[in-house]
Amino acid sequence: MLEPNIIKDQEVEYLINDVYEMYGYDFSGYSRASLKRRMNRICLLDRFTSFAELRYTIMNDPDYITRFVEEVTVNVTEMFRDPSFFKALRDNILPQLGTYPLIRIWVAGCSTGEEAYSIAILLKEAGLYHKSLIYGTDLNPSVLETARAGVFPLQQMKQYSENYMLSGGIKDFSTYYTANYDSVKFDKSLQEKLILSTHNLVSDSSFNSFQLIICRNVLIYFDRDLQERVFSLFDNSLENLGFLALGAKETLRFSTIEKNYHQVEDQKIWKKIDHH
To answer: Which Pfam families does this one have (predicted)?
Structure first.
């Protein structure tokens, strides 16, 4: 499908300002190419034929901003995505975290929650779930509603089950959910240690200290300065000897906090060096 070219570069800037001034969502640090692509996609989906129409709707319909934020923030996720990453967590990272009396994990930009549920399953299978807390945060309140419900399309289970097995899963994946027509509901016990809340990586501050922070495939949409801000937020939120996990195309290399970390897995996991 050909991408429409309704929104021009300069108009992207206008919209960033409008959205920030009216609603407080700050997209100024997002990659312009990605924003422009997504704004054009919204025009196509919602049948706006001009920038003026899109802008008018955003400015005059407070309900529409929710949809706009949903479309502009990227919500692509699946359970046990990149199984080798979860295998590394399972085999090498969780045994180290197991020595703590309480394990706090932050899944930043958790979207609809698949990753948080995957972590809950890993912790259960490692016998660590009872002493863990998983914080799942996202900018977008409506994806968190999906995460809270724990209900996902049945058709995705084949893929998720495959990912789970490749990550070193030890059970039949279907023991974790109940199927009902064309959807599944994940086991309530997977939510017992899960705390979901809105948090804006761009503007909100640190809210706890963690032994593991997972933020995969969120930073690729941010420009350099914004990435730096988020890295320093993570650095402030991570205990000494804690772990930071990023997505396949993301890295701490060339960042200002790089000197505090060393890469422990080729799976994009860094360990914070103890400076005491």
So the answer is: CheR, CheR_N
User: With 60 as the cut, is the pLDDT of residue 2 above it?
Assistant: no
Number of domains present in the structure of the chain: 2
- The mean pLDDT of 242-260, rounded to a whole number, is 93
Who's near 43: CB < 8 A, 6+ residues apart? 4, 6, 7, 49, 53, 54
**Sheet arrangement for strand 151-153:** 151-153, 183-186, 177-180
CATH of the domain at 244: 3.40.50.150
> Is the pLDDT confidence value at 270 over 90?
yes
Print the domain residue range for 154: 83-272
Q: What local confidence, expressed as pLDDT, does residue 75 receive?
A: 63
Residues 6+ away with beta carbon under 8 Å from 114: 77, 78, 79, 81, 152, 160
Co-location of 56 and 131 in the same domain? no
Residue 121's pLDDT is 98
Q: Is the dihedral of CA 123, 134, 220, 265 positive or negative?
A: negative
